[in-house]
Amino acid sequence: MDPFTDTLQRLREAFGSGRTRPAEFRAAQLRGLGRFLRENKQLLQGALAQDLHKSAFEGDVSEIIICQNEVDLALKNLHAWMKDESVAKNLFTQLDSAFIRKEPFGLVLIVAPWNYPVNLTLVPLVGALAAGNCVVLKPSEISKGTEKVLAEVLPRYLDQSCFAVVLGGPEETGQLLKHKFDYILFTGSPRVGKIIMAAATKHLTPVTLELGGKNPCYVDDDCDPQTVANRVAWFRYFNTGQTCVAPDYVLCSPEMQARLLPALQSAITRFYGEDPQSSPDLGRIINHKHFQRLRDLLSCGRVAIGGQSDESECYIAPTVLVDVQETEPVMQEEIFGPILPIMNVRGLDEAIDFINRREKPLALYAFSNSNQVVNRMLDRTSSGSFGGNEGFMYMTLSSMPLGGVGNSGMGRYHGKFSFDTFSHHRACLLSCSGLEKLNAIRYPPYSEWKQQLISWALGKQSCTLL
Amino acid sequence: MKDESVAKNLFTQLDSAFIRKEPFGLVLIVAPWNYPVNLTLVPLVGALAAGNCVVLKPSEISKGTEKVLAEVLPRYLDQSCFAVVLGGPEETGQLLKHKFDYILFTGSPRVGKIIMAAATKHLTPVTLELGGKNPCYVDDDCDPQTVANRVAWFRYFNTGQTCVAPDYVLCSPEMQARLLPALQSAITRFYGEDPQSSPDLGRIINHKHFQRLRDLLSCGRVAIGGQSDESECYIAPTVLVDVQETEPVMQEEIFGPILPIMNVRGLDEAIDFINRREKPLALYAFSNSNQVVNRMLDRTSSGSFGGNEGFMYMTLSSMPLGGVGNSGMGRYHGKFSFDTFSHHRACLLSCSGLEKLNAIRYPPYSEWKQQLISWALGKQSCTLL
Predict the structure, then answer these.
(1) Which of A230, A281, A289, B134 has its CA 20 to 30 Å from the CA of residue A83?
(2) What pTM value is reported for the model?
């Protein structure tokens, strides 16, 4: 027997009792989550500073406020989201009640990563709770500060018969995954995404996988270098580049590169000062393993900007690499750090071909003064999401789904999409137990006129007498 | 196909924010033999409408339809974007080694797992339309003949080879006693004194399934029907009683014209019985009392639900068809098909100018800048759209 059996059994029994179904229960859970965020703001900011050297402000805007917004949105819309959806009926079903009912799946597992450890654990949790599920949270063991707060403090704010935090590394997670869950949402790498999906297969468990990739950032010749440099730099170096939707590499012409480099340096200096290592707005790499990995990438191509590192702090300077080969490691794996390689292409078509030769990314960016260029990039490529002359600002919109495609993932969440993701949409048809004479028409034997009548009625699509 | 505009916030007021529906790319549809035209072509409609290239793998078991789909259908479509591939389990296994961008499979849970395992290797999203044993609860408070008409028709339609057909009945012994003559009456009215000669009763797909079903006839006790004719793969509309939960007829999806009746004492026992088992694709409850029907609906889970009705909802393209748990994942029909076969891409198009407006979000963050940004972020969806 493994350490999870009892916990999961307890949660299943609670779900079976119907506890999580009423709106009042779900709203109480969401309010509890809201209180957790408000009452432990400093504790969470401290944990994020400990884990990733995030400033209190950055912790707020990228994690805590985002979570609070999701809680508020769910509370505001809970009844509307939970409501049965009426559907159009046809001639056969005119007298019936036809609707789609949203139901919780049951026991939901959320496996979260370390880069936005509050956001990427709690935003999915909002959706799972709003949808009426019992939830097991598996926060990342790598972001230890946040893991501790989530494990020790968060449960006090929720009904612990319906919610549990489980801890551990890859081995414990493997054990956990042997159990049956009714839905799994995983955020992490494609490699581990496959492990999760393989485990889910054994129980026919549906999954949402929020994975990653190398997010291309095309910079057209027709644009203002400083504007582009500001935007690209900010989105690249935010959270020290440890963002799944950050621009991973730039594609531009050699001429554009020559104009972009000084502009990037200017932006970096304005944002982080002459000595970025002492800027309060620049974070650190999560741990030594990733620090080493990133430091090794600094020897790819040629360092045009930055390139400094300090092992004692897991500090890597905001860096730009040029003269990079596609075969080098920095162009092979997702960088997930404050390093921005620039690859040269001659024009939009070559950029599109380059992008389409590779796995579909989670995000794709195109910068150009020409709408035509931006739209052409949008039309000819595929990615989880797309930003034109912009970075991942869409992440602040709860009206936008967050999800990948191809190697960058499947499924989506945020806002109402979370509620729908964690709900089974059950088609329901409630008919009257009487009026059987009306039904007589559909039973065999089928005379000629009966056949014609039924065929005709069936061919008449959705009567909107509803 | 139209881009869907979405609500924006203060930061994105001047931007264009929308969700674009895009085809996944290469879609594989693996279809079964029981409704070989419907379950191959309805998914195809969605995949084509969503702009995908499609590979169709019809069932090799329904050979007549397979032939028409393979030889005639391609003439009507652009063959650079569409192909029919043929074969059995071995060929399908080979096919699945290749990478597809979406797979829709209709069939058994056992094969569903094989499909999903293959999909995992390429991180291919799937919709799996599987099966199960669909319970049919018959309350004491109902008119037996009305219920018998409805249950019999949905059970024996297509000779019971329907993934959403009522698989077994749950009712009290008293109700069973009233239901049996009513079921016999319905069967006789529908199919005549000699159902084998009725033009409205089908046959079992092949000998393998015929044997499987004939073996099930020895479970419990035959109350109605029970005849079979191997030369025609004919099985009579049959009702079994005195059935044990451990017998094969209550273990596997029947997929034939055999209806076992299990006894329960009341709604709660029926609900417990159902919830002890895998979530079915469909669930039916018959009662004069709306309260009973709604209680069954509230306390159980299934792909879909029919109250005092069978799978009539299948005629509504406004309803999604999909399972839950062991009966499947994902859904299609109507617009749900289009959405299933589309990637919904979040798009934000900003202006390349007006950079001064953006200055506020860049570091370093003074006190007032922090307050302003935090405040703006906390203001949800401005509906100035």
Answers:
(1) B134
(2) 0.97
